């Protein structure tokens, strides 16, 4: 009985120890640290990569996700998608601007402010978060207010004044957004205001002194050591203490999916794919039956449309680009004396300038690129169109149509009819004149499978080595 009691007590202690060891951690949170590296412009591929890897880290019960970032900025839509994922994340997110020499400019500043922990490496910087957009008339540099003549109140209704008002709305919206993130994370709202309105920037030491970031760490091991034991407030108010000193670090580089999306979402490549698709379909329509250009053109057009769907494009610009291509195609067949071609080039260039609704780094379309692509398109379409027009004007050299006018030799004449050899083939022939084997005839028309012919005079005999008599 005594041994049984001791055994039950030992079993109870083992169960209690197991439960205490495996109970949900209200204080320390261990697990691996997942490091996601983002280098370059923030776009649709970046937001897709972050969302997928964040979900995988949550399934693996990671204790912390570190976003190692070096970016000049990016698209507003992609940035806001990443920030929404950070704010709703069920585990802590730390953004580290590194390694040394990296930056978190423009969109990177917003992401840094939104993270639970903001860290930077020495010799890095953040800021310059002023939104920039095109297509707004009268835009002035940030922080510069146009002077108005008090005697002329109508200037407020000018396009320049309207453009300034629109830009001011955009800046106010961006400043309020960054300020709200600063208030949520307890960071400096003063610098958030200046980063948007004055394009202010700070170094890592200045950012730490101003209360913009939490930690300066030269590398990831130092960052893990400094974050160990820090408490983080997650979504819903739940507090979680980090245990990163001895945590395993798993670095995840962008996979093939992100690389493909990054290539496809390049606006210059999307525009080129669109034009290649138009060229290929044009070649298929002018030379039907080949098949490969039509299939390749359809694929290129679909990929280009998918890229436009990912990007913040102006669909009026897409329509102008398509109109320009159609006008340049029409120039190859219609006698417009260059009017359609010039109009097509102008529409193509203007549409390319209006194509993107942003001037985020890496997403602009340079004017020389547009002009070069438009001129190349005009020359290529003109060359293909001229070749197709010359081909149509040539006589037919194959098929049933080319039999008209062909010279044949009568091979057989029977009571049922006559037969002749036409281009190596035996055809039934009919003529209003009597025919004899060996007669030379010319095909006048085709009636079903019967050729109507007319006799030709016999060829004069030739003297060997001389001229005919």
Automatic annotation (TrEMBL):
The keyword Oxidoreductase does not apply. It is found in: Membrane. Residues 269-382 form the NfeD integral membrane domain. The keyword Transmembrane applies. Residues 145-156 have a biased composition (Basic and acidic residues). Pfam families: NfeD (PF01957), NfeD1b_N (PF25145), NfeD_membrane (PF24961). Residues 137-162 are annotated as: Disordered. The chain crosses the membrane at residues 260-282, 289-307, 313-330, 337-355, 367-389. It is a multi-pass membrane protein. Residues 401-455 form the NfeD-like C-terminal domain. Keywords: Membrane, Transmembrane, Transmembrane helix. Residues 33-132 form the NfeD1b N-terminal domain. It comes from the Bacteria. SUPFAM superfamilies: ClpP/crotonase, NfeD domain-like. InterPro entries: ClpP/crotonase-like_dom_sf (IPR029045), Membrane_assoc_protease (IPR052165), NA-bd_OB-fold (IPR012340), NfeD-like_C (IPR002810), NfeD1b_N (IPR056738), NfeD_membrane (IPR056739). Its main location: membrane. This is Nodulation protein NfeD. It comes from Aromatoleum toluvorans.
